[in-house]
Amino acid sequence: MTAEVKPASLQLTERQEARRRRILHASARLASRGGFDAVQMREVAEHSSVALGTLYRYFPSKVHLLVATMQDQLQHMHETLRKRPPTEEDPATRVAQTLMRAFRALQREPHLADAMVRALTFADRSVSPEVDMVSRLTTAIILDAMGLEGPPTAEQLSAVRVIEHTWHSALITWLSGRASIAQVKIDIETVCRLIDLTAPTEHP
Amino acid sequence: MTAEVKPASLQLTERQEARRRRILHASARLASRGGFDAVQMREVAEHSSVALGTLYRYFPSKVHLLVATMQDQLQHMHETLRKRPPTEEDPATRVAQTLMRAFRALQREPHLADAMVRALTFADRSVSPEVDMVSRLTTAIILDAMGLEGPPTAEQLSAVRVIEHTWHSALITWLSGRASIAQVKIDIETVCRLIDLTAPTEHP
DNA sequence: CGAGTCAGTGAAACTCGTTCTAGGGTCGCG
DNA sequence: CGCGACCCTAGAACGAGTTTCACTGACTCG
After folding, report:
1. DSSP string of A130-184?
2. What's the rounded Cα separation, in Å, for the pair A86 and A54?
3. Is the CB of A50 less than 7 A from some atom of nucleic acid strand D?
4. Which residues of B touch A185 (CB under 8 A)?
5. Which terminus, N or C, of chain B has the lesser number of Cβ atoms within 10 Å?
6. Cβ contact (<8 Å) for B178 and A121?
7. Do B162 and A132 touch (CB under 8 A)?
8. Smallest CA–CA separation between A15 and chain B, in Å?
9. For chain B, which domains are there?
10. What is the predicted pLDDT for the residue at B8?
11. Closest residue of B to A176, CA-based?
């Protein structure tokens, strides 16, 4: 709806960076209990000691805010995963293991996960750049887990995209109580088999 | 939020069935132009000549309404697809072909597709039964396209679930303008390769 | 017939995302 | 020092989903 400039992206002052942090923190905290609905813009503003108008200057909508929150959380997760890379041999297994690890992390804060994922899939075109960023982060995590030597082939990128699709959608079905964790695990493992299919070097 | 009975599911009188139809029709029509946002409950009520309170008695929320609309549309599509089953030999190709056909149908009413899919992924636990129904319908369409002889194996069901995940998620990325139709096609074809992987009878 | 029940009606009320308005503070520059 | 240009605050206001409530009309069962 609003076609404003986004001050959030280009060099903020220290105070502004602090405000942004406070907002994201408040958003995550409110989401942690209560999920999507509990993240109310007035509440976020109040908890981060910022006027409502200012909140909207930083994040032009609730969905923008929650997608940015997800971005933030994903970055943390990426770093964490980097520190303890998967131990398995097989790339497909490594990816599956990594995603299940991420999944268990989300499990610890199911409401937060709910809020972020719902925002992500509910986002319309006006949030595309931010959603894209999240997508790139996810892709990076998966590619990292694959542990490729060179750059990925087009086929591998397709596989990664499909894995990502499955990851998001499986997450949603779990969050809405329509699939068990075991089911999610199976789905993840199933889709990760695609990686073997696209491996450039086969061993008989 | 509301834990009401659902009169919509158990035998309605003729007048009630007609009302329900009118509501679904109005919902689809409003969604067709304008998408999710254009489906305003007051408008739906007015266009279907029903009081707002009645609308809410039939569909306890906007999301319920749109998911029911999707159910309706999917049923139509299922019948249409039944009439002209895919021509290919290979099951994976048949499924991919079927899904792309469905995709092109949705393309014809992108706003409607947007409204329905957004509602579907935005649905919380209170809509689970209805979302599950949609999921079952989608599964049925895919299984039909596979053209199995006997009942599907557990492995095949996993593959179908993953295909479904990919289908939904790819649809979302397309609707939000983050992926081209070509990309969706590639993703669908990629994930459909899983079917070959799970075929009980292999040919060397 | 008469009372009870229950779907449907109409309108007002409430909530929360979003927008708007008015004013106050701060910083850099003449 | 003064003065714009911005950023920020406080709060009201608006819009749409949802809830509530008092009422009506039709149907049922005694």
Report:
1. HHHHHHHHHHHHHHHHHT-SSPPPHHHHHHHHHHHHHHHHHHHHHHTTSS-HHHH
2. 42
3. yes
4. none
5. C
6. no
7. no
8. 34
9. 61-198 (1.10.357.10)
10. 36
11. B125
